[in-house]
């Protein structure tokens, strides 16, 4: 089945790890439940010099989390960030060789664990990957787009009021890929349950244009913050 040909961009060492790909549809497993993703509160948008990150969910009175979908536990949203490129190959994963303009990573930590503890366990984190694709009919992300121009420079930070996370999700979410792997930034600890949705979120062109203005360590727009493509050890 060609739809299983998902490739990952990962910094795990070649030959290390058990990256078994599993294909989930709505007919085979319950969907992942995104709880409190519709709630509103304040977040911080920060330019780390290698991406832009939205954080502050740990202070929310009703913190967003995910559960079900074969995860086996409750995972609390800790931060989200984007990957992109100055070209069209801005996604951390490809499907059937196809890149996307950008990719969103929603990073969740297992309930009851600190991030420092989670990184030492094989299922400490659950990261949801969402492909982003530009389309004429794509909908804007105004809360984010209105503030991206304020964090162009490295270490710039701005608060966003009344943030809602569910607007970042695609319309169709009945098919996703699943594998165990590592974070695509930081160390090579294989502590992540990855869930990558097949159908992208369609956005207006301004979002990608704004991401491409974000500056890195050298004070110039980041050319790319994606990893070289590596195949899975196994596919299912």
From TrEMBL:
The keyword Magnesium does not apply. Its EC number is 4.2.1.1. SUPFAM superfamilies: Carbonic anhydrase. Residues 1-236 form the Alpha-carbonic anhydrase domain. The keyword NAD does not apply. It is an enzyme of class 4 (lyase). It catalyses: hydrogencarbonate + H(+) = CO2 + H2O. Pfam families: Carb_anhydrase (PF00194). Keywords: Lyase, Metal-binding, Zinc. Its cofactor is Zn(2+). GO terms for molecular function: carbonate dehydratase activity; zinc ion binding. SMART domains: Carb_anhydrase (SM01057). Reversible hydration of carbon dioxide. Belongs to the alpha-carbonic anhydrase family. This is Carbonic anhydrase. It comes from Heterodera trifolii.
